[in-house]
Amino acid sequence: MSFSIKENKTILFALAFIIIVGFWQPNVLMDGIQRGSMYAVIALPLALVLGILGVLNLAHGEFLTVGLYISYMFYNRFNLDPLLSIIPVSIILLVFGGLIYLLTVKRVIKEGHLNQLLLTFGISMILLEGVKMIWTTRPRNVFTDYAYASASIGEFSFGTYGLIYLLIAVLVLVFLQLFLKKTRLGQATFAVGQNPKGARIVGINVNLVYLFVFSISIAILGIVGGAMLPRTAIFPAVGSPYSLKSFALAAMAGLGNLNGILFAGIILGIGEAIINAIPGYSGWADLVFFGVLIIVILTRAFREAR
Coiled-coil regions in this chain (predicted)? Predict the structure, then answer.
């Protein structure tokens, strides 16, 4: 994999930033990596749908909420460990995502972003109200011993469970890269993302590719939901903030840049952790995401104007 001079400078700057934070506050660095990896793995499926289908999915966070609740249901009714519930939950969301695509999203693929936003906003509201009807608004928690495990390096102690997000993010990235480059369906998916009209001309079933990509993106949220459950209190609006942060990461990384999602997520996660570490300023952490997003958009607009 090769990088441009501009990308190399950005990577070197980011590495310098990470090293400085590590020497200053190792706990902040570890918290930021774990937090940023979680943001990245949630944003990856949204970026995939945006890059291939061109659909702005405002219901992204609500699909994550559904995944969390289904994982909780398996734990509560069948005593299934949240990490083991990843398999059935992701399969259920795979099918659920496919049905949602066939019944709704498929109809607005060519209708422009405004119709897509209105449709997916409507889906998000239906999912939100459906969760309230089935599970009520009462917050729910799951306790597992391993979710609060810790490790020590010298005098530095840190929680280890959050590193599962980094592992999942890396595995999802590797899977997506291998799928896109090594399989016929993956190569067809890449072709559709580049030029859907041209893909149709050469005989690629574009509708099948769209169905597959959307379904897989929702299934990934099922994996994330199972991983988040032991450390996250769940309630109907738990997933909503992640939609905005996922859009922010996708915009910062650039359309189709899946590797950049993980990179940007970790950097911004560390930025949030730094704000949280300052007494009295933890409520300002979200400004990191959206402040950087504004700067990135304005910088790109300025470059394009030149």
Answer: none
Task: List Cα–Cα distances, 112 to 51, 54, 119, 139, 199, in angstroms.
Answer: 15, 9, 11, 37, 20
Closest of 171, 172, 210 to residue 191, by C-alpha: 210
Query: Is the distance from CB of 93 to CB of 221 less than 8 angstroms?
Result: yes
pLDDT reported for residue 41: 94
Domain count within the chain: 1
Query: Which domain, by its residues, includes 102?
Result: 41-239
What Rg value do the Cα atoms of the chain yield, rounded?
20
Is 3 within the bounds of a domain? Answer: no
> At CA 166, angle to CA 165 and CA 170, rounded to 5?
115
Report pLDDT digits (tens) over 56-74: 899 999 999 999 999 999 9
What is the model's pTM?
Answer: 0.89
Residue 60 domain flag: yes
- Span 243-259, pLDDT tens digits: 988 988 888 887 778 88
Structure tokens at 242: 């992640």
Contact assessment for residue 235 and residue 139, using Cβ atoms and an 8 Å cutoff: yes
